[in-house]
Amino acid sequence: MIRTLLYGILLIAAMGCGGPDEPTYVITSAGDTVKKTPEGIIPLPTADSAGYTTRIVTGQTTPLELVTFAKTLTGVPYKYGSIDPAEGFDCSGFITYVFNHFGIAVPRTSEGFTYLHREVNLKDAKTGDLVLFTGTDSTVRVVGHMGIILATPGQELRFIHSTSGHDNLGVTETPMNSYYVGRYVKTVRVFEE
């Protein structure tokens, strides 16, 4: 009885937060926390015993489906802290929105992707892999930016991301140029092979 009452209070409190397009967090009757988004109910990524997300479950979604959808968002402006395409995205907001579109739970911050275990060498990167960078100060070796790899055989490696950069503000495709190589932290594979 007390658990049911507590569940009801938490559900009402969680559903009262945020605007109509912002995710809210809900505790289910089984005690699991899920994210309620315009795309539906998405379970939060599972953390390990240290509290880090080390794996993302992509289900039946393919890397091609993911990047095809991501490209439809090209030109959405940059907005810090946002996952709403009507207002804009920050870098991790863009990643969150793209993955959540397919019902895939991911960390909300770029730093939250740091502990994913399936690191791959940049030269072996494939479409759909995530590329992690430092913030704009490359001397601080903490993940602060990210994008989704677009790899086409015989062509320069590119990635799609939401950037606050002066040249391309918002969701855009960028080559892996010397500026980003200097900020490069690692590449992680989230899709099973």
Automatic annotation (TrEMBL):
Domain NlpC/P60 stretches: 60-191
Classification via Pfam families: NLPC_P60
Keywords from the UniProt entry: Hydrolase, Protease, Thiol protease
InterPro entries per UniProt: NLP_P60_dom, Papain-like_cys_pep_sf, Peptidase_C40
UniProt keyword Metal-binding present: no
Domain of life of the organism encoding this protein: Bacteria
Keyword field contains Hydrolase: yes
Family listed: Belongs to the peptidase C40 family.
This protein's name: C40 family peptidase
Organism: Mucilaginibacter pankratovii
